[in-house]
Design a protein that fits this description.
It is a single chain. By secondary structure, the protein is mainly alpha-helical. It has a domain of 134 residues. It is 70% helix and 0% strand. The chain is built from 10 helices and no strands. Helix 5 runs antiparallel to helix 7, helix 5 packs across helix 10 and helix 6 packs antiparallel against helix 7. It is globular.
Length: 234
């Protein structure tokens, strides 16, 4: 499963078609949106604009002023929802991570044997390491090395994402494999392998060798989990 989209496709607002009105008829009055609906739209525009900026310009090149201009919103609107740059960029990556997790869960086909489901689960997780989510997160990891506020926010975010990804992977892989002893450790090691392979992609465009190594990793994981004893329930 390969899922990718360019930062330029992240639009700050949803464009809806104008309803057709019969000649001589008055258009139906629009339902007034609630304050919460307007706030949600504002947040989404800010977060999508932030992700697009992180992917295109990096963390250093992403300023709150530029994000507001990209989103077509005032600086006051940004400060109301996200008072600092650190809060804004973390919220943006969390927003994209949640969206990608929903897409992965929705796109993953059901059924199949244990090995087939495990392979699809690994493919689904790998897709998250080859698109805007990884690019944006990488910018934050690098910047967090010398930014204490960003690092504190990022550590909390990574813990939340880790728990969510483990739950999603267990669901996609199926109960047979998820019950295996060392399942959590194998998944954590898989994340490390995928991060390294994704970093290599920055310098090497040819995916042939990387794909071969990833298929090898999938076989190793499948063989290990297939032979592992079930985790003892406490």
């Amino acid at each position: 499963m390969t899922v990718s989209f360019r930062a330029s496709t992240l639009r700050p607002a949803l464009s809806l078609p104008t309803p057709e009105v019969a000649p001589g008829a008055s258009p139906a009055p629009r339902a007034r949106r609630t304050q919460e609906e307007r706030s949600a739209t504002t947040r989404e525009r800010l977060l999508d604009a932030t992700i697009a900026s992180l992917v295109e310009l990096g963390y250093v090149g992403t300023s709150t002023t530029a994000v507001c201009a990209r989103a077509g919103l005032s600086r006051g609107a940004q400060l109301h929802h996200y008072p600092t740059k650190a809060e804004l960029v973390i919220a943006a990556v969390a927003h994209l991570a949640k969206r990608r997790a929903s897409e992965l869960a929705r796109e993953a086909p059901a059924g199949g044997g244990a090995d087939e489901r495990l392979a699809r689960a690994l493919d689904a997780i790998w897709a998250s390491f080859s698109g805007p989510l990884f690019a944006a997160a990488l910018e934050l990891w690098i910047a967090a090395r010398s930014d204490a506020e960003l690092r504190a926010n990022l550590v909390r975010f990574e813990r939340q994402v880790g728990r969510a990804m483990r739950a999603l992977f267990a669901e996609l892989a199926g109960a047979d494999r998820a019950r295996a002893r060392e399942f959590a450790a194998v998944l954590e090691l898989t994340f490390h392998v995928m991060r390294g392979m994704a970093l290599q992609r920055i310098l090497r465009d040819d995916d042939t060798e990387r794909r071969r190594l990833f298929e090898l990793w999938k076989r190793l994981v499948s063989e290990f989990l297939a032979g592992a004893q079930p985790e003892e329930q406490s």
